[in-house]
Amino acid sequence: MPEHSPSPTPERAVYGFVLYLGTYFGLGLYFIWACVPEEWLQSIGITYLPQRYWVLAGPIYLCVAFVFAVLFYIAYNFTITLPPDSINTITDQHAQYINEEKISVPLGSVPPLYDIPLSQVNRALYQD
């Protein structure tokens, strides 16, 4: 099974092009519905359309729903964030501290990632 990658493939190009055309086709139908008088549409046989109220109400509802979704997402993240005095905001079971004796980094290379203990951070910041 091939590895997933974000690089362009012929299938993605076709899907993107169809989505591009469909978007402009839908926008054109929306503008026709919004701007052409109903008598003209009925004269060519288009009789079942939503009320003209939805020409403006639909996009406004979508915009307001998007704003509320963003606000809900932010509020939800605030509710699941641990309080500052919780021990889990300092460390957790996945913390990896450096072992000074075992590490040997060649000169000029990037050292491995590790968590800095809170006491070391306080010493560096507050010069205790």
Topology overview:
Blueprint: H1 10-35, H2 38-43, H3 53-80, H4 118-126
Q: Overall pLDDT, averaged?
A: 87
Low-confidence stretches: none
Helix content: 40-55%
What multimeric state do the chains show?
single chain
**Structural class by helix and strand composition:** mainly alpha
Number of strands: 0
Fraction in beta strands: under 5%
User: What is the radius of gyration?
Assistant: 29 Å
**Cα separation of the termini:** 56 Å
Main sheet: strands, sense, barrel: none
* Total DSSP helices: 4
| Coarse shape | elongated
Give helix and strand order, one letter per element, not per position: HHHH
Condensed summary:
It contains 4 helices and no strands.
